[in-house]
Design brief:
The chain is an alpha/beta fold and about 425 residues long. It contains 14 helices and 16 strands. The chain starts with a strand and ends in a 6-residue tail after the last strand. It binds zinc ion (ZN). Zinc ion binds next to β5.
């Protein structure tokens, strides 16, 4: 049975970093999306789709804007309860806030409670897929995949591996990291909409032996993603230099242990050396920009110029990031780019939060408003508050109409979030 969702629609036909951004997407002021059995089967104008699908059930969202659901390419769901913690930079942040909270995730009840809370928060903010770090505990991986499965969500996640420079109760070993990850991969990867991601936290918390063990596991499962952190803060980079004196640079540590490839996804990647950039482009690896985290923890300003050269996704980095909202994250990306002398077009911001992140995760059936994609959708009210509405009233085109919601919007702008065609916000089954 086909359902037609009516509203404004924006569908990207091209990468707005490679073409004039305003021309990269088709806008229908009265558009429609046909959904059948969880998939988008047709898109176009409301008139055309009503004619092509005369028997369809119709849900009319009026002037609201229908977009692909947001894809958050780098999060730590176990940090949900410590978001917005004060006053630390990266290493102190981890020791003061992150590690004590992550130590609780060996308790499956706690892991389940936070996983469910986290996914409900992101759904309320219009996010339909995430790629999450878990904790060293296999229970934390089971919890997020179970919660995602119950909601029908496509989620990427992996056990975060650490065997040094972490508290006693948050260390595994090279062998147990390999074996636990292998068992979780076998249990979850490809089950429903779950994708397992091999996940060393970052170079300083893994011995060379652990990095090599995870590199070997990745070589056995090359269809999996591998996610980790790269060049977030300058003192972190200096620490990596001390820990791995033979490495040419930070990226070289990963490459030397089999952790560089076209399905590698590196969070942050702010302070890259020219050699690192060239190598990342050469292997077609992905970077993930986490702007609210980078300003909140004081890490630095990501170079959005890289988006024209390689896969770049956008992410909240919950809870180092200061928001669960990809709207707020797009606004922060705009602000960070402005500080580097570039004004990102609204088309570029929306693309990063949808198709850009989907490309970073090599996801072929999300992030796009077109047939053949899952009906993971967000419906945005472009006049959700008085402040936004009065600015929206002056808009001359769709980009001026949507930009105030990107800059000032929050979960009040999210009218509905659909996962595989199921309404998850107002009409939750
Ligand atoms: Zn992170």
């Amino acid at each position: 049975m086909t359902t037609l969702l009516l509203g404004q629609t924006l569908a990207f036909a091209a990468d707005p970093f490679a073409t004039p951004p305003a021309d990269a997407a088709r806008h229908d002021a009265r558009g429609a999306v046909a959904v059948d059995a969880g998939w988008i089967t047709d898109t176009g104008t409301a008139d055309d789709l009503r004619a092509r699908h005369p028997q369809a059930q119709v849900i009319d969202h009026g002037d609201a804007l229908i977009l692909p659901g947001f894809v958050d390419a780098h999060v730590h769901y176990p940090q949900t309860a410590i978001i917005a913690s004060w006053g630390k930079r990266l290493i102190d942040w981890l020791n003061t806030y992150t590690f004590p909270e992550e130590a609780r995730f060996g308790d499956p009840d706690h892991a389940r409670e936070i996983a469910e809370r986290y996914l409900d928060l992101v759904l309320a903010n219009g996010t339909t897929s995430v790629s999450s770090y878990c904790t060293i505990h296999p229970e934390s991986v089971d919890a997020i995949f179970d919660a995602a499965d119950a909601r029908g969500m496509a989620v990427w996640a992996g056990k975060t591996c650490m065997d040094r420079n972490a508290p006693d109760d948050l260390r595994d070993t090279a062998q147990s990291a390999h074996d636990d990850s292998a068992a979780l991969l076998a249990k979850w990867h490809g089950k429903g909409r779950a994708s397992y991601v091999i996940t060393p936290r970052f170079a300083p918390t893994s011995t060379p032996e652990q990095l090599s063990a995870l590199g070997a596991l990745w070589a056995e499962h090359p269809d999996c993603l591998m996610q980790t952190h790269l060049s977030e803060q300058t003192d972190e980079i200096a620490w990596v230099g001390d820990l791995f004196p033979d490495a040419r640079d930070y990226l070289d540590v990963y490459e030397a242990h089999g952790l560089l490839g076209d399905r590698a996804v590196y969070g942050h990647s702010i302070h890259l050396e020219p050699r690192e950039r060239d190598r990342l482009v050469e292997v077609d690896a992905a970077l993930v920009h986490c702007p609210t985290s980078n300003t909140f923890i004081g890490s630095g300003l990501f170079d959005m110029g890289l988006s024209g050269l390689m896969r770049v996704g956008l992410a909240t980095d919950t809870g180092g990031g200061s928001s669960f909202s990809m709207l707020r994250t797009m606004a922060a990306a705009y602000e960070v780019a402005q500080l580097r002398g570039t004004a990102l077009h609204p088309a570029q911001l929306l693309w990063l939060a949808t198709e850009g992140s989907a490309r970073a995760l090599h996801a072929g059936d999300i992030g796009r408003l077109g047939p053949g994609n899952m009906a993971d959708l967000v419906v945005l009210d472009l006049a959700s508050t008085p402040a936004i509405a009065q600015r929206n009233a002056r808009a001359g085109d769709i980009w001026e109409a949507v930009f105030p919601t990107i800059v000032m919007g929050d979960d009040r702008a999210v009218v509905e979030t659909y996962v595989a065609g199921r309404p998850m916000k107002t009409g939750r089954p």
